[in-house]
């Protein structure tokens, strides 16, 4: 086991020194909207805060842990009438041998395309994230081939000379857009985003290593299966949310497709992830559950858990656990809009799922 652990450490080293790097993926991408598309900032009324924890490949000696915190507020009173947000992402690879930090501010602009009875039902939002990032490596925690003995493991000193640079700080920018349509029974959203627009250099050993541009395309539909007759029915009415997320970075493709159902405060869902839209050859099957608690007429908390069951050649690495906590304050009037200003800017109802 110790020798295997060292090999894993060596593999991590090779990965981080490679000329290109890839972003962490989240299973619950629908709960990590700002991570994937800054155009979502302030799309719905009020204030939202999101916390996410992901533990990937749990059977490996050195698993991968990721943390994400984000919040956004609607800003209808500002020029452009979009939203503001912030996001922090941190992940540890190989028990902290490699650490990545991402902290950004988000600004979104809003274009109302149609209104019904003074309320927006079709809007287009554009968003941009400006972030400051840091990548660190602990060279002392890595093991190189010249240290290993086939029988006794790590017994030799290495000839590897530790580079002076073990900490890379760089700016990063992302851009995205979302088109959202709302009706009484159906809520539809489609969008796309480009991340790492300037492909920042992130190498420890040379200036050629860079973070490749990532392309995102997504769409989802929320369908109301029961009529909401009064406010108390909102938390109980049956709904379905089906969607797709496509990612492309450095030639690697990922598709997430599935459906989540909701009834009487409970979420249940099944999704799958693959390199193409082929349901007969899956990389992983995802099982999701969660609860929705009301904290008042206009506030709620959602707690969701998902488990990735690996079905491909990486099955021996173990599954992946992910937990999300979302707080929503739907009618929080942060910018103190008056009644006249609310009527001028209109509003899209709060998030339904």
Radius of gyration: 22 Å
Which sequence of SSEs, written as H and E, runs from N to C?
Answer: HEHEEEEEEEEEEEEEEEEEH
Fraction of residues in helix = under 10%
Any idea what the shape is?
A: globular
CATH topology: Porin
Largest sheet: 14 strands, antiparallel, barrel
Characterize the structure shown:
By secondary structure, the protein is mostly beta strands. The chain has a single domain (2-345), classed as Porin, CATH 2.40.160. It is 8% helix and 51% strand. The protein is built from 3 helices and 18 strands. It has helices spanning 2-17, 33-36, 339-345; strands spanning 20-21, 47-56, 64-74, 83-93, 98-116, 119-137, 148-149, 153-154, 167-182, 186-195, 210-211, 214-224, 239-249, 252-263, 266-274, 284-294, 299-310, 320-329. The strands form 3 sheets. It has a 14-stranded antiparallel β-barrel with strand order 2-3-4-5-6-9-10-12-13-14-15-16-17-18. The longest helix is centred in the N-terminal third of the chain and has 16 residues, at 2-17. The chain is globular, with a radius of gyration of 22 Å.
Describe the secondary structure blueprint for this structure.
Blueprint: H1 2-17, E1 20-21, H2 33-36, E2 47-56, E3 64-74, E4 83-93, E5 98-116, E6 119-137, E7 148-149, E8 153-154, E9 167-182, E10 186-195, E11 210-211, E12 214-224, E13 239-249, E14 252-263, E15 266-274, E16 284-294, E17 299-310, E18 320-329, H3 339-345
Keywords:
mainly beta; Porin; disordered N terminus; globular; 8% helix; 353 residues; 3 helices; 14-stranded antiparallel β-barrel
């Amino acid at each position: 086991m110790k020798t295997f652990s060292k090999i894993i450490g060596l593999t991590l080293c090779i990965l981080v020194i490679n000329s290109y790097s890839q972003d962490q993926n989240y299973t619950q991408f629908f709960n990590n909207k700002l991570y994937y598309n800054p155009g979502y900032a302030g799309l719905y009324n009020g204030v939202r805060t999101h916390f996410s924890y992901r533990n990937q490949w749990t059977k490996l000696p050195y698993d991968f842990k990721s943390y994400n915190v984000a919040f956004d507020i609607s800003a209808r009173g500002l020029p452009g009438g979009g939203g503001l947000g912030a996001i922090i992402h941190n992940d540890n690879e190989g028990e902290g041998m490699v650490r990545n930090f991402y902290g950004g501010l988000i600004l979104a602009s809003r274009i109302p395309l149609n209104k019904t009875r003074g309320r927006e039902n079709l809007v287009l939002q554009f968003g941009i994230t400006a972030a400051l990032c840091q990548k660190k490596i602990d060279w002392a925690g890595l093991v190189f081939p010249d240290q290993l003995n086939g029988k006794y493991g790590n017994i030799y000193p290495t000839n590897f000379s530790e580079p002076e640079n073990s900490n890379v700080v760089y700016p990063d920018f992302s851009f995205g857009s979302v088109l959202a349509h709302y009706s009484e029974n159906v809520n539809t959203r489609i969008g796309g985003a480009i991340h790492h627009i300037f492909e920042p250099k992130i190498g420890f050993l040379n200036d050629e290593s860079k973070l490749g541009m990532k392309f995102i395309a997504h769409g989802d539909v929320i369908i109301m299966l029961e009529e909401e007759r009064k406010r108390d029915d909102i938390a109980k009415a049956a709904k379905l949310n089906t969607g797709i997320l496509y990612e492309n970075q450095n030639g690697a493709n990922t598709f997430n497709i599935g459906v989540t159902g909701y009834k009487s405060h409970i979420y249940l869902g099944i999704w799958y992830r693959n390199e193409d839209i082929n349901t007969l050859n899956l990389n992983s099957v995802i099982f999701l559950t969660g609860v929705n608690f009301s904290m008042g007429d206009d506030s709620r908390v959602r707690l969701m858990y998902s488990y990735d069951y690996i079905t491909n050649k990486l099955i021996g690495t173990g599954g992946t656990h992910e937990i999300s906590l979302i707080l929503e304050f739907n009618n929080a009037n942060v910018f103190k809009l008056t009644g006249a200003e609310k009527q001028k800017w209109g509003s899209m109802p709060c998030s339904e799922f």
